[in-house]
Fold Protein MIZU-KUSSEI 1.
Amino acid sequence: MGDASSSTEAQPSAPSPPTPPPPPTLSLSLVQPSTKKKHRPAKVFRIFRNVFRSFPIMTPVCKLPSLPGGILPDGRSVAGSRITGTLFGYRKGRVSLSIQENPKTLPTLVVELAMQTNVLQKEMTLGMVRIALESEKRPEKDKTKLLEEPLWTMYCNGKKSGYCVKRDATEEDLNVMEVLKPVSMGAGVLPGKSETEGPDGEMAYIRACFERVVGSKDSETLYMLSPDGSNGPELSIFFVRIG
């Protein structure tokens, strides 16, 4: 009697399915802004981001501080420069703010806000939204510019939301800016996480032209401009140092 192992041929294993290719990365055509200055990346920014990203979003009531706006005491308006601002994020993730010289340039500032995207969308449907980002005032000899602060405390319509961090633009951030390059103003959704089904996997965005008003070295304000002067969603973002 022959050996059973010799009478049974080994069955070849089924070939493993091919590994799907990674999602395509857009070829970036964004250019450097004319006001961009080169600087060494600060590792402390990334440390702050990693630490405070894990903090819970808080909602204690807090009085919104008196902040400089675009009106002088005598009632005259203050003219400012025009910039492009984009608020974007996954619906149940934190919303980020990107500031660009115009839609064709690389971001000059990206701040991860202490608010979920769907919460901000809801606030904007209810009326005017005032976002205040506060940081501590620095000594006179400190030359750190206001928008270079690594850490902010955020208030939305007078309620403390938590902590925001300035961060370098990620590859995903740059891809979003590249896709939105033809858009000067508008709102909508972009395809996002393929593993998340339904609206939660979509990247929501609001892009608008903002009037940037510099009150002092310790205060700046961004006013959203309506494309046709109508009473659309109103949004003001205040950057201020206090103390």
